[in-house]
Amino acid sequence: MGCVPSRCTVDAECDDGMVCNGVERCDMGAPGSGCVPGDPPVCDDGFDCTTDACDEASSGCVASPDDSACADTIDCTVDRCAPSDAADERGCVHEPDDSLCDTDFCSVGRFCNPNRGCRGGSSRDCSDMTPCTVDSCDGSSRMCTHEPLDADMDGYPAASVSDPSGADVLCMGGTDCDDGEASVNPGAMELCNGTDDDCDGSIDEGCPPGTADDCSSAQEIVLDSSGRGSVRGTFDGLHDDYQTSPLCRAMTGARDAVYYIDLPVGLNDVTIDTIGSTADTVIGIGASCDPTALQTACSDDYDRSAGTASRIWLHRIGNALSTLRIYILVDGYRDTTSGDFVVNVQRRSAAGDSCTSIGTSGQLDISGGGTVVGQITNFTGAQRGSCESGTFNPPEAVMRVRGPSDGSMALQAYTTEFTPDLYLRGGGCTGTEVDCGTGASIGGGVNGVALNPMVRAGETYYLFLDGGRGAYVLYYTP
């Protein structure tokens, strides 16, 4: 016979000393020793934020708090799992912490409402107590900034401002003598308008005395040794004395100014423009100063895509025996036009009127658009267009031009001295003809021709005004 295990007589004889596997008991009907395992304890303290488990070392159930289970949508509360009378049904406590509302440097005094989040507060006071600065709060850098006042936003801070009492306050480092007018600052051009435009303490320095209001007060634009000269003025205070050519359609009633240049003996090329003007200008020229002569030719918006500046070229103009005076009429485009204008002049030796003209004395470049007032001085020509007729080859003017960005060119030529023809070539001065137009009488003793070729942007073309010897006017609009 084998060994027979002893059987239990009471529950205590079955206790294995472990808590978490339940309480063992003695069952007289059970096989073997008669000991039967107990049921493990159920650990649940009734709070969702705890993890409940039986722990032998603690001799029973242990509830471990999990703060992450208490996270809510309120950013300024400290969320903890702390089952107590103050806890909610999950065992969570949400304690407001005002310091968590201090995330925005530019707001002060904010507090935490445990149900609604951060509330209240006011904007941080960044005032440095001087009217010379614009004070603001920069939350990203957590600091107050104090930028020099530039009310007219011209890039130059105010030299002085008025404080609340109306007294002037000098601003350290400020240079703008009129911070309410963007056209007045140390970087501006001094105009002849009774204002210190460039803030150097002087008014209208470099301006001739008086105003260039009409022919009796016309002012000279003096050219320096390089042939350059310019004048600055304003339409304000001037009168409507003359009209530019009707071709430019300036409105009656627009105010105007009159200037003149003296060209040296010989043939000259001269560029006259109003680039840099703030006012909408139209310019006219004449060899004498009277209402008729000042309508010889005009220019308005030489390139309408580039603004309202005007440009006239004088080509091969001059006198073999004496100097030549040319009058310049600067007209406002509208009867309401006001503001400032600039007249720029550049004189050069005359460019040639042939395909063999090269270098700095090469053909006149009319790229960009404008009006050409020229004179053909040769007696016979060297080029012919396909649309010209007759056996005699009359002289021609030759100009160079780059194709505009949209490839469209509008050309009109007028003269009272011959019947003009226009033709355009690409691929060189003697290259392939692009277009050719024959002139005709347009009435009143004036002959004219128009040409509207399509070209390639940026390529160089050669324009020929042909048909005879004498003066002409060419209008080119890109």
Description:
The chain is mainly β and 478 residues long. Among the domains are: 175-207, no CATH class; 215-349, Jelly Rolls; 359-477, Jelly Rolls, CATH 2.60.120. The chain contains no helices and 31 strands. The chain has strands spanning 25-26, 35-36, 50-55, 60-65, 77-81, 92-96, 107-113, 117-123, 133-138, 143-148, 160-162, 168-170, 219-220, 228-234, 256-263, 266-273, 281-286, 297-300, 311-319, 324-332, 340-349, 364-365, 370-376, 396-402, 410-415, 421-426, 432-438, 440-443, 446-451, 460-466, 470-477. The strands form nine sheets. It has a nine-stranded mixed beta sheet with strand order 14-21-16-19-23-31-25-29-28, with no helix packed on it. A hairpin with a 4-residue loop joins strand 3 and strand 4. The termini are far apart.
Summarize the structure.
With 478 residues, the protein is an all-beta fold.
List keywords for this structure.
0% helix, mainly beta, 38% strand, Jelly Rolls, 9-stranded mixed sheet, elongated, 478 residues, single chain, 31 strands
Strand order, largest beta sheet: 14-21-16-19-23-31-25-29-28
Largest sheet report: 9 strands, mixed
Number of helices: 0
Structural class: mainly beta
Which architecture of the domain at 215-349 per CATH?
Sandwich
Set down the secondary structure blueprint.
Layout: E1 25-26, E2 35-36, E3 50-55, E4 60-65, E5 77-81, E6 92-96, E7 107-113, E8 117-123, E9 133-138, E10 143-148, E11 160-162, E12 168-170, E13 219-220, E14 228-234, E15 256-263, E16 266-273, E17 281-286, E18 297-300, E19 311-319, E20 324-332, E21 340-349, E22 364-365, E23 370-376, E24 396-402, E25 410-415, E26 421-426, E27 432-438, E28 440-443, E29 446-451, E30 460-466, E31 470-477
